[in-house]
C-alpha cells in the first residue's frame, strides 16, 4: 500500500472565528490547516500566538493563502507586489509556515505574457527562498490569462526556480472539464500543494459556482478518486487538503462540519487504496424502526394490522409486528416524537460498528442488560440512531403471545428521515461511506411552505429518504423540523387501505382535486381512478412500474406511517405526491399557523 | 392619464396553503389572482368552494396556470392532450375562470413545426371556445422549439382563432435579452395576459434563474417600466399580474409578502403614469436616530462628546446632541436593544406620510401630547419606525441646558439597519418607492459566521445601510439578529478617536493583524499607518476618496455607534472592514458561543 497522505483543511471551509476553526479541525483529527488570510486578519491573536495555539492543538500550518494578482504586471506594480509579498513573508515567518499560495491574476493590469509571468514569479521565488519559503502557483478557473493547470505548470517550468512549484485545486481543474491525466507528467516534487473540493454539476458561471457551492469530496459529482490518483501517481507527497467554499458550511457548527470533512478524506483515501478500513458488511434489510410517539399514539399500529408482540425486558418500549415489518414504539418519548432509530440487519454487526468508528461516526454507548443483544449503535449526523443488528435482537423482548391480524403489510419499504437544514450534504456522505448505501441524485419539489430537496440512500432492501428545506425555515413556515415517517411495504394497497380504514385507522384524506388532476394527467382506467379516490390512495409511475401509497395522520407531533405498494420495478418514493401529503397533514392539524405581522 | 390597470398575483408567489395565499392577496388589496394548479391540487377545498371563497374575498380568478407540453405533437398525443385539456376546462368552469396559460412545450415529443403547432392550438382554442374559454399561449425562455415571444405570436397569428392569444411574461422575454419594443405591434386584444417579474442579473442558466431568483418589479435589474409601457401601448387592458418564483418568498409570511408585491405594482403604475401618488418630498438629512439600549448604556454618548440636551415631555426618552448629530436614547427598552427609529427631515412631513400610506406602508398611530410635534411615523418592513419630521420635533423635549463638549462629530452619516433574512429585497423596494432613496448594487462579504449581503439606500445626506445573512442563520452562528448601529460624521477621525478614548469611551480594539494586512495591501505613509493602529481606526479607499472609521463596543445586546470621516468623495461605508468589526465585537462579548454537538 502506498504511504498514507496527511490531511489538512483550509480554515475558510468552517464557520466561526479562527480560534473556533482551529479547535474544530484539531478535534476532528486533522493533521494540519491552510490558514486563510482573512481569518487571520480579523483575529485578535497575533501570528505568533496562532502558531503556539496550533502547536498546542497538534496542527501544522501547511499553507498560507491566498496571495492574489501577482504575476505579469508592469515594472512599478511588480516592485509594489514584491513589497506586498515581503510583508506577508513576515507574517508567515511568525506563523512558522513556509508555503504560500499564489493564484493566477485576475487584475486588469495583468499582461498576457508567459515570459514576463515566469520572470516575475522567479523573482518572487528568489525572495521567498531567502526566507526559507516557497511559492505554490495555482491557475484560477477564472484567471485573466492563466486559467488552466497545464498553463500554470508551463510558466512554473519556464521560471525554473526550486522555490516555485504548482498548487493543484480539483475544483479549478474539474469545473472546466480539463483532463487531469496529464498531471502524472508533472514531477511530484514540483507539486507543492493539493487542494480538494467536490461540487454538484450546476448550470452557472464557474466563479459563483466555486464561491458558494463547493462540497467535500464524495458529496458532489466530481471523480476525486481518479483526480487524486493522478496527483499521487505523479509522486506528490504533501497533504490532501480541503478547500471548500459553501454558503451552508460557512454558517454551520464547525465541529460536526470538520468531522464530516475529515470523513470525506478517509473515504477518499480508502477509495485510493492508501487507507484500509473494515469493509462495509452487507445490509440485508430493515430489522426494525423505532418511533417516538405521543403517549397512546403507538396504538395507531393496531388498525394497520400490527400486533403488540413483545415488551422490552428493561426499557419502556414495545415491539409491534406484521410480517417482517417491525416497529419499536417508544411512547414515553420526547415532546416532539420522530423516528428515533433505524435498525439495519447486518451480516456482521461488529464489523459494521468498527467501520463506523473508523469513519468517525459516534458509536453510542449502550446500557446492555443481562441476556440483551449486543446491538451496535451509531449516531447519524441528524441525531438518528442507526442500529446494526444480527438475529438476536428480538431476545430483548418478552413475547406477549399476541399475533398480528395482518392487513397485507410484509415489511418496511423505507424510512423517511427529514434532515436539519445544515446536515443534508453531510447525511448522504455519511450513509454512503459508513454503510455503503448509494445516494440518488437530488430532486427538488415545491411544498406548500417552501422548496424541499430530496434524495434517497439505498442498497437492496434498505432504503432511507433524506429531505431538507432548500432555505432554512423561519417563523412562518410550519413543521420545523418536518415530521418523519416509516413506510411499510404491502402487496395490495387498495385492499390494505380499505381494511385499515374499516378497522378504524386514522388514514389521511386526499382531496378530490388531486384525483381530478391525476385523471387529466394519466388517463387511468376509470375503475382504477375511482378505487384510488375512494380509499385516498395516491398514485405515481415511472419508466419501470407503478406506485400506490397512502398515509396515516400524525401519530405525535413529528411522526406518521405510510403504506406503499411497488408494482413492477418502480424505483421512486412518490415524491411528486409529497406536497399533497404535507398540505393534508396541515389541514388536519390546525386551521392556520401563527401568523406574524411584518414587525 | 390612461386607464389604471387592475392588479393580480399568481398564487405561486406566496407561501402557505391556497387558503393562506388567497387571504394574503385579498388583505393586501389585489384585485385578482392567477391560480397555480399545484396550489389547487393539494387543497382540500373544491374548485367551487375556491370560487366562493374568492368572491367573498373580492378576488377575481384571472388565469388558471400552467398547462404544459401541448403543441406540435404526433396525432395520438394530440388526442390525449385535448382530453387532458377538457378535464382542466371542467375545473376552470367550476372555478369560474375563463383563461388558461398554455406554455410552449419542453417535451422531447414536440416537433419543430409551426404549422402543426398552429393547427393543434387552433383545435385547443376551438374546444375552449365551446366552453366560453380562451387560451393564452406563452413562450417559455427554455421552450424546446418556441422560446421567444415573437415566435409565439407568429404561431398564434397563423392559428387565427379568436379564443387564442398570447401571454407575455417579462422574465421570459427580458432574461434572454429579447427586445420588447416589437410588442407594440401586437394588437392589444390578442395579448390575453401579462405576467410581470423582475430579476437580478445572475450568471446562470435561465431555467434555475427563473425558478429560484425572480423578484417583484423594482427589486431587480430589469426595466419593467419600459417593458410594461410597450404592452400598454399595444392596447393591452388586462391586469398587471405578478408571477415570481423565489426561494425566500416561498417560505416567508405571505401577508407582508403580498403587501410588498402590491407595492411593487403601485410603484410601477406610478412610473408608467397610470397612477398618481403624492410625490416624495425631498429629505434633507437625518433629524435624529432613536436607539434602544440597555439601562445605563446611553451614557456611552458622553465620552463621545455628546451632551444630554433634552428630556422628553411625556415619554421616558432623552435627547443627546453634538453638532447636528442627534440621538434619542430609550433606556427603558426591550431586552434586545437596537435602532428603534430613524427620523428623516422632510420638506413636507404630511405629504411624506400620505405617500407612504398610498404605498401600503403602515402609518403608525401616535399618541400626541399637548404641544408635541406631529411626527409622521411609518413602519418599515423590518419593524423599524421611520419618522418624517419638520423643524418642530425638538419642542417635544424640555431643554436641560447642558451643552456638548464636542469631539468633532457634526452629524449622522448613516444608520445601519441589519435586516431579517426574509425582508432584504422588500426593504430596498420599500425605501426606494416610499421615500425616493436610491438603492446601491448588492455587495456580498464573508463574515466570520457566514456570508452577508449588503446594500445602501441613500439620497443626499440621508444614508441607510441594509445588511442580511445570505443563508438564514441557525443555532451556531451568533448574533441573530445582528446588532444595528448609528454612524456619526466627524471632521478628523484620528483626533476624535484619541479624544474619545481619553474621555473613557469604550472603543473597539482592532487587531494588529488588520494593520499588518493594511500595510501590505496599501503601503500607506508610515506615520499614517501608525496613527491608525494606535487609535484602532480602520481605513478604506475607493476611486473617489478615503474613509476613516472606528466603533464603540456594544451599548446593549444589539446596538453600537460608529464614527466616520469621509475624505474627498468616498462613496462607500467601509464594508470591507465589517468582518473585522464583527470579530472584534464577538471577542469582546464572550469567549465562545454555545456549541451544539452533532445531535
Automatic annotation (TrEMBL), chains A, B:
Mg(2+) binds at residues 414, 485, 562. HAMAP family: DSD. Pathway: Aromatic compound metabolism; 3,4-dihydroxybenzoate biosynthesis. PROSITE patterns: VOC. It comes from the Bacteria. GO terms for biological process: 3,4-dihydroxybenzoate biosynthetic process. Its EC number is 4.2.1.118. The keyword Repeat does not apply. Keywords: Dioxygenase, Lyase, Metal-binding, Oxidoreductase, Pyruvate. It holds the Pfam family AP_endonuc_2. PANTHER family: HYDROXYPYRUVATE ISOMERASE (PTHR12110), XYLOSE ISOMERASE-LIKE TIM BARREL DOMAIN-CONTAINING PROTEIN (PTHR12110:SF21). Catalyzes the conversion of 3-dehydroshikimate to protocatechuate (3,4-dihydroxybenzoate), a common intermediate of quinate and shikimate degradation pathways. Its cofactor is a divalent metal cation. InterPro entries: DSD (IPR043700), Glyas_Bleomycin-R_OHBP_Dase (IPR029068), Glyas_Fos-R_dOase_dom (IPR004360), IolE/XylAMocC-like (IPR050312), VOC_core (IPR037523), Xyl_isomerase-like_sf (IPR036237), Xyl_isomerase-like_TIM-brl (IPR013022). One of its GO terms (molecular function) is metal ion binding. It comes from Amycolatopsis mediterranei (strain U-32). Belongs to the bacterial two-domain DSD family. This is 3-dehydroshikimate dehydratase. It catalyses: 3-dehydroshikimate = 3,4-dihydroxybenzoate + H2O. The lineage of its organism: Bacteria, Bacillati, Actinomycetota, Actinomycetes, Pseudonocardiales. A divalent metal cation binds at residues 138, 169, 195, 243. Residues 411-553 form the VOC domain.
Amino acid at each position: 500500500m502506498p504511504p498514507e497522505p496527511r490531511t489538512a483543511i483550509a480554515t475558510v471551509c468552517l464557520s466561526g472565528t479562527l480560534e473556533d476553526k482551529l479547535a474544530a479541525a484539531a478535534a476532528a483529527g486533522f493533521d494540519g490547516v491552510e490558514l486563510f488570510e482573512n481569518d487571520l486578519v480579523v483575529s485578535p491573536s497575533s501570528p505568533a500566538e496562532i502558531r503556539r495555539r496550533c502547536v498546542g492543538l497538534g496542527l501544522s500550518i501547511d499553507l498560507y493563502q491566498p496571495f492574489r494578482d501577482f504575476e505579469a504586471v508592469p515594472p512599478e506594480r511588480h516592485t509594489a507586489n514584491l513589497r506586498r509579498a515581503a510583508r506577508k513573508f513576515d507574517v508567515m515567518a511568525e506563523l512558522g509556515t513556509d508555503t504560500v499560495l499564489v493564484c493566477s491574476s485576475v487584475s486588469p493590469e495583468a499582461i498576457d505574457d508567459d515570459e514576463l509571468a515566469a520572470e516575475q514569479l522567479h523573482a518572487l521565488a528568489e525572495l521567498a527562498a531567502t526566507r526559507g519559503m516557497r511559492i505554490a502557483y495555482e491557475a484560477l478557473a477564472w484567471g485573466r490569462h492563466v486559467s488552466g493547470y497545464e498553463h500554470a505548470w508551463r510558466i512554473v517550468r519556464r521560471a525554473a526556480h526550486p522555490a516555485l512549484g504548482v498548487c493543484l485545486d480539483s475544483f479549478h481543474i474539474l469545473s472546466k472539464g480539463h483532463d487531469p491525466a496529464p498531471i502524472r507528467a508533472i514531477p511530484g516534487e514540483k507539486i507543492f500543494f493539493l487542494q480538494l473540493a467536490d461540487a454538484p454539476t450546476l448550470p452557472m458561471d464557474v466563479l459563483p459556482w466555486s464561491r458558494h457551492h463547493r462540497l467535500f469530496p464524495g458529496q458532489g459529482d466530481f471523480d476525486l478518486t481518479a483526480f487524486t490518483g493522478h496527483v499521487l501517481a505523479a509522486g506528490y507527497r504533501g497533504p490532501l487538503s480541503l478547500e471548500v467554499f459553501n454558503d451552508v458550511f460557512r454558517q454551520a457548527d464547525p465541529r460536526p462540519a470538520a468531522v464530516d470533512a475529515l470523513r470525506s478524506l478517509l473515504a477518499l483515501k480508502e477509495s485510493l487504496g492508501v487507507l484500509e478500513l473494515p469493509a462495509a458488511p452487507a445490509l440485508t434489510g430493515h430489522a426494525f424502526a423505532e418511533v417516538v410517539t405521543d403517549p397512546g399514539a403507538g396504538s395507531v399500529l393496531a388498525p394497520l394490522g400490527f400486533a403488540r408482540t413483545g415488551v422490552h425486558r428493561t426499557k419502556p418500549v414495545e415491539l409491534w409486528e406484521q410480517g417482517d415489518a417491525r416497529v419499536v414504539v417508544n411512547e414515553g418519548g420526547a415532546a416532539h416524537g420522530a423516528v428515533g432509530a433505524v435498525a439495519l440487519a447486518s451480516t456482521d454487526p461488529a464489523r459494521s460498528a468498527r467501520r463506523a468508528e473508523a469513519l468517525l461516526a459516534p458509536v453510542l454507548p449502550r446500557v446492555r442488560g443481562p441476556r440483551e443483544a449486543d446491538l451496535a449503535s451509531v449516531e447519524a449526523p441528524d441525531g438518528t440512531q442507526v442500529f446494526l443488528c444480527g438475529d438476536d435482537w428480538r431476545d430483548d423482548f418478552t413475547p406477549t403471545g399476541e399475533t398480528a391480524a395482518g392487513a397485507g403489510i410484509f415489511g418496511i419499504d423505507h424510512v423517511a428521515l427529514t434532515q436539519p437544514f445544515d446536515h443534508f450534504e453531510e447525511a448522504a456522505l455519511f450513509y454512503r461511506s459508513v454503510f455503503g448505501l448509494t445516494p440518488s441524485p437530488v430532486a427538488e419539489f415545491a411544498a406548500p411552505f417552501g422548496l424541499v430537496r430530496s434524495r434517497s440512500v439505498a442498497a437492496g432492501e434498505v432504503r432511507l429518504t433524506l429531505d431538507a428545506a432548500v432555505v432554512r425555515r423561519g417563523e412562518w413556515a410550519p413543521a420545523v423540523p418536518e415530521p418523519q415517517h416509516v413506510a411499510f411495504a404491502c402487496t395490495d394497497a387498495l385492499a390494505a387501505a380499505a381494511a385499515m380504514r374499516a378497522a378504524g385507522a386514522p388514514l389521511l384524506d386526499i382531496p378530490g382535486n388531486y384525483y381530478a388532476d391525476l385523471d387529466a394527467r394519466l388517463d387511468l382506467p376509470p375503475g382504477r381512478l375511482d378505487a384510488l379516490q375512494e380509499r385516498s390512495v395516491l398514485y405515481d409511475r415511472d419508466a419501470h412500474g407503478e406506485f400506490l401509497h397512502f398515509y396515516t395522520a400524525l401519530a405525535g407531533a413529528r411522526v406518521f406511517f405510510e403504506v406503499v405498494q411497488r408494482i413492477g420495478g418502480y424505483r421512486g418514493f412518490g415524491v411528486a405526491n409529497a406536497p399533497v401529503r404535507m398540505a393534508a397533514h396541515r389541514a388536519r392539524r390546525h386551521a392556520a399557523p401563527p401568523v406574524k405581522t411584518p414587525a
